[in-house]
Every structure is written in structure tokens, then in C-alpha cells.
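Build the 3D complex.
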Amino acid sequence: MSSTLIRAERPLFEGCDWEFGTIQRCYDAIEKVALGEMGLDIYTNQIEVIGTEQMLDAYSSIGMPLFYKHWSFGKHFSRNEAMYRAGMQGLAYEIVINSNPCISYIMEENTAMMQTLVMAHAAFGHNHFFKNNYLFQQWTDANGILDYLEFAKDYIMQCEERYGEAQVERLLDAAHALMSHAVHKYPRKRTADLRSEEKRERERREHDEKVFNDLWRTVPGKESTRQDPTAAEKRKALLELPQENILYFMEKTAPRLAPWQREVLRIVRIIAQYFYPQSQTKVMNEGCATYTHYTIMNSLHEKGLLTDGAMVEFLSSHTNVVFQPEFDDRRYSGLNPYALGFAMMQDIERICKAPTAEDQQWFPHIAGCNDHMNVLRDVWANYRDESFILQYLSPKLVRHFGLFHVMDDASEPNLRVEAIHDERGYRKIKQALAKHYDVSWTSADIQVVDVNLAGDRRLILHHRALNRVLLEEKDTRMVLQHLADLWGYDVLMKEIDPSTESVLKEHAASPRPGIVQIEPAS
Amino acid sequence: MHIVDRRLNPSGKNLANRQRFMRRAKSQIRKAVHESAGSRSIKDADEGGEVVLPAQGVHEPSFRRSSSGGIRDHLLPGNKEYIAGDTIQRPPSGGGGSGSEGSPDGEGEDDFRFALSRDEFVDLFLEDLELPDLAKRRVVNAEAMVYHRAGYSVSGSPANLALNRTVRNSLSRRIALRRPKPEEIQALKDELEALAPEDEGKRIALQEELARKQRRTGVIPYIDPLDVRYRRFESHPKPVAQAVMFCLMDVSGSMTEHMKDLAKRFYVLLYIFLKRRYKNVEVVFIRHTHQASEVDEETFFNSPETGGTVVSTALEEMQRVIEERYSPDNWNIYAAQASDGDNTASDNDKTAALLTKVLLPCCQYYAYLEVGRDSEHFPPGFIRRDSDLWQTYSTIIRNGAPMAMRKVGHRRDIYPVFRELFAKKTGAEAAAE
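Done.
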């Protein structure tokens, strides 16, 4: 490749100063590599240069350029500001928003090299991932999100004017508390419209006619064992129970909420849903962006567009980002998604280009295919963290990180090492690690299971306590209180051991007046 | 691709959120502010600064799994010696070697610390307080002039030219005097050129018309000096209220460090408070034993003195300073005296006389703070004799002078006492006075 390379006359920039011309030049050079050599597919980019305070602003509204008002954002802002001022926390170099056009914020303090790096990382790496990954395609609407936020902001402001800030604040407090359980994890079944209903009916009839045989009528059959559904079953079916999206259930079913309150719950729920894919693709998203910037920066350097000095600066910053401390290191705080993601992407490239016998055995479908970009693009489009790790974590990486699996059973005195990086352990470790990135495994499984709307209207929730890990007592009580306030009647949560179906613990809450009018107990 | 420079966008997008947060955590923030105020020196007492809140009050709950109990597994990098089947001693709670997961939302349950701006700090600090007798605000030197817009004038400096108004005048004058528009003249010229050479009569008429219009254009100017208007400003003297605060303290041997500390805290509060109300606040420190002198803050609080206690010397010194530098006509005078209550018996009458005759009439407010020892806790039922000064001052207050006094024995009492002294009067109380 380097034989055909034409070295540039001059590097893109020298020294660390930049101006808007520099950014444009760098962007064009990056674009050539990203679209031409890597074949990325991106939303139109919009690069916004911001200062420190704006970065702090963006932090507190989850990176969004506009958001409704709530005290909790002020809290995050105040804390970040204080930490930043005291020098205890640096700020991110960039923030990128999954929207169309894709907005990347870059900090004015960054050096020219850093601006190049963050553009390659955010405006191309993340951007490609947002546009192509199936989760983002399925769950987010990049074209509409900014308009929706605009609507949400105005709507909530109007509510505050009409019903008072205190009212809206109480409602948002409750909604935010339930935000972690306000997503649909699976696409909902669409109710069929008349046309598809008719089509299905027609097809069924045709099928019946085709396979019709009068003989079947004469075969003696069993008495029908199906019984009519009980009243409780009917009730549950009608309310779509069990339901794991608690806010959705509140919005649709809570008996005493006003229409505007339902709309506010819906806003919070929709925003939670918008961020849902991000939590499932941390490793992949960062891996994709890091791999992209690494490839682009190296390519620019090869072409002579980056000075050696800038390259050294880049490498130092890059190694910091993908650094993985070991478990007994003071700096260890979990697996670094940048490190794991980047290592896996590079590993896929290696397997495609120079597979070992082991790789041939583990990844026969890609080993030695020599078209790593194609494989990577396919991976970025069709996997999430859990499935990605399950599929692509190679034995070589398990050895590289020295991963080992430890079981911690509270009822036993010692921890037990289940698997290490050896022949017997690879698969176990792969499966266990994948499970750590599975949202249905990491977040508590809480469902609304029953409510008798005709009776006492007590809402019953179940927490299926995976591995007998219970909920945090104090927090749960507070959230349940919020839930009861929304619901307007008593709420009961049972924590259930899924292996034995026995109840481990119960929490209950009664509504306080405030969000909805409470009827005096009769 | 677009590059947008957002650096100049209005900042403070989060101001509203921050205010909401402050309102929500108000009681806690107030408490934190009062605690932090004690540790500052007088002059920088009203700077903003970091306050620390307990995390619980502004906690945002969510359904979380607890961090203990049950069966959990960890995947850790950096294996060195373990093989499958090994057992590891459970590390002491908190994780440590194994699975220090941290709290799931990434936020520890540490105290919540954040910085308050100066205004926020002082606002909270002085909520519901007011200064007694603010009436005597005087206009001082002419530096404090403010300019207000006051219509238009026909003369002024070019910088103040009111362009809109000038052009408007010019336009109405041109319409009124029927100054020909440039387009009309141009139209005439065009018509003249297009005219067939044989149409001699019309040509002459047109030429005359053109000449007339051109002359008229010359005579009636586009902008006449008559049209020109300037923005007019009027200066108003701005009342600058200024205040001087006298800190009087007994520094004789009987005053312990603890007492001085109490006094200092009280002065700090008073300084912040005055600073809030008056643009210009000066502080005079007068210390006394059996003789008094004006000193700087450092000496005032820190250098020890020995001697007897003659309170009237301090009052005389204060009187001297007032006469020299702070004429009661121009200054709002506040005084705060701190003492352990001792005074030479023979001096009491002189002190009372000085106060009632000379000082109180020119003071806005006079606060006397009697500081006691922390250890001076008397069993209930034990009646403690009031100190000399206390008795003397009691008689003065009974006569309705603008004066107040309180006893303070512990740091924690300072702020309540201060609030008590300056609390906003309710309607009924205010009416009664």
C-alpha cells in the first residue's frame, strides 16, 4: 500500500494552534480516508466549537443541546462545575449526539491534533455507528430527536405556567425515579389494521382449502381441555400484563392522572427509550469510534499529513484512552469499554488478515478473508455488546487481558475462581462476560403483574431477584413512594426468588397527596 | 459539513436549573452556608465559595440492585496466579481486590459539594434580615452621578446623534416641501432622451420642468441642520449610601481567645450584612483596656494586651474618630461592642453618659454583645449576677435608645443571636414602634 502512497507536500498543521481553516482542512482529509478507504456511511456532520461552560451545560443535559428544566440537571451542573473548578475532574474532549445532522461538540481548548482526533472519533466513528447499528435504527429517530426535545421543553414549560412549577416538579421527580424501568425491551406487537387482517384471513382460508381432507372429520379426538380464561387472566390480558415498562403502564393505565401528566410521563419515557441503545452498545460504540480514529490517524500520518510530533501526541492520548488497569491495580474500576472494544476490533482485523490455526478453528467464517472492513462494518451494523462479545471475543484476547471469572456466593465463606484463560475457560469466560453486557441481566427485572381496577386498585409488582440479589432497600422505598403517588392507590412490590418462586421480601407504599387527588380511605 | 462557532452563545443555560436545585436544597444549603461563614476572616467573609451538602437530601432514587448478598460473579482482567477451582479469601467489604464495582450509577454516596457565587451566598446568609433605621441615607460627593435618557435635543456631540430621529425629520421636511425625488429627475431625463427630435415644443417644456426640479433639489437640502437631533441625557445624582462600622472590643486579660473568637464571628456577620446594604462600608477597629486605640484587623484580633478595663476610653476614641472622619451627616454609623462585661465600677456612669448623650444620637444602631466562657454553664436555678456593663446598658435601653444587647456563650449561638437582633419586624411589631 505504501508503494502507491503519494506523500503530501505539507502536513495539515504544525504546532498546536488551530483556526477554522485548519479544522476544515483536517475534516476534508479525514473524510477522504473514512469514506474512501474505510467505506463508512455517515449522517451529515455538524461540528460545533464550544467553551468550558457550554461543555458543563451539555454534561448536565445528557449531551443534548436543549432539554426541559428540572432541578436535578442543576444539581449535576453544580457538581460538575465544582469538580472542574477544583481541578478534580477534566472535561471530555467531545460530545456527539445521535441526530441527523450528527452534531459533535469539540472543545476550544483542544490542540489541533486533538481536534483532528475527536473529529475522526466522533464525527466519523460514532456517527457511522449511530447511522448503521440495528439498535439505533430500531429504537431512535435521529431525524426527529431535536424537534422532539424542542417540543418536550416547550410542553413542560407550558405545563409549569398552567399548573405551577411545584406540580410539574413532583411529577418529573416521580418520572425520573422510574426512568430506569421505562423502556420497551422488545418491539411491541402492532395491532393489525383491517387490510392485513383481511389478508391473513384470506391466506388462512386458502391454506385450509388446500389441505382439506374430509377424513379428519371422522378421526376421534380428545375432549377439548381448554378452559375459558378466568376473570383475572382476562383482566391481565386487557391491561397487557405483565408489563416491564412501568412508566408506559402508568401513562396508559394510572386511573387518576390528568391528560397533561400522562403526556409528561410519555416525554420522559420516550427520552429514556432514545438512550436505551447507547447503554447496550457501549463497548461496540467506543470500539468502533476508537478503531476508526486509530486507523484514520495512522493513515494521515502515513500520507505525511500529520507531523511526527502530532503523531506522538496522538499516541500518548490514545494509549491513555485504551488503558486497562489490572484488577489488583488501584486505578481499576471495571473493564474499560474503550480498551475492550478497540482490542476486539483490532483483533477482528488481525483474524481477517493473518489468522492463526486457533482463529481458523474459532472463526472459520472470517479467518483469512482479507476484507476486514467489510467484516467490521457488518459487525457494527448487526450486533450489540452482548452478542458481539459472545460471537467475537477470541481466545487470544482472553489471554491478552488475562480474564478470569470469579463467583461470589454470599452464603459461602470464600470466592471461587470458576474459569481462567485456558482451553477449558475460554468459552465460559466468553459467555459470562457477554452476560455482563446483557441489559436483561444487569438491570433489575421488575414487572407490573396485577391490578384489580374494579376492586381496591392495589398495584402489584414483582422483582424477580436474579441470583437472590435484592433491591437496595432505601432507594426502593423512595421509588415505590413515587410510584404510589402516580398511581394514586397502594402499591406492593414482592421480591421473588425465580428458582423457587418464594417471596423473599415485600415493600409497600401508599400514595401521598400532591400529584393526584387522593380519596380519603372509606 | 458545517462548522459552527458556539462559543459566543449566551452562557448560563443552566441557570434556571441551578436555581431550582438551590430552591430545593435550600434548608440544607442555608445550614452549610452558616457553618462555612464561621471560618472566614471579616473582609472576605462575603465571597462565594464551596459548600458541602449531605448527599441524602438531593438524592435521586432509582430501582437498583443492592451491592451485597446473593450470588454474583465478576470478570476481572490481569490474572496472574489463579487457576480454575481456586478459592480466594473474601476481601473486606467494599470489594477491593475483587469486583470493586462502585455504585451502579457512577455516583458515590459522598457528600455533595458545589460552589456558590457571592450573591447566592450572601442572599442565603441574610435571608429575612433587615437593618434597623436605614433612613439616614445621604447623598455624598458628586462622583456618583448616573445618566438617564431624556428625549432628544437639537445640540449634542456627534456620538449621540440620533440617526433614526434625524432621518425621520428630514423625510417629513422633504415631503412637506415637495423636494423632487431622484427617480423623478431620472425619469424626466430618460423621457427627454427618448423624445423624437421633431417634437420641439415638448422638449422645451420638459427641459424647463427638469431645470425647475433640479433647482428645487439644490435649494432644499437632503438633510438640513434643522433636522438633526441628538439623544439627550440628564444626569441625576445617585444616592450612595455609605456606612462605617465600629468594632469595639475589650482586649484586657480577662478576654480569652474563645471570647475573641465569638466577637470576631459577630463582626463578620455584621460586616457581611452592612456590605449588602451599603455600597461603601468602612470598618474601624478600636480595642481598649484601660486605654483605647484604633488598630488594624490583624492587631485587633491577634495581639494580646494587658491592663485594666475602662470602657469609656473606647467610646471616647470612637467619638474622636467620628468627629475626625465620619461626619454623622454623611455616614451611617453602626457600632458593635464585644466585651466580657467587666468595667471599672467608677467608669459606669461616664460610659452611660457618653453613650446616651454623644454616641447613640449619631448611631444608626448600637449592638452590645456580651461574650461568656463556653464552660460557664450554670446549674438551673442558679441566678447569675449581671455584669457591670450589662446593668448599665439595661437602663439605657429601657429609655428606648437604638441599641440592643445579647449574651453569647458558644459559637452556635452567634448566628441565632445575630438573626434575633436584625430579624425583620412583623407588621404588628413594626406598627407598635
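Chain A has a mean pLDDT of 86.
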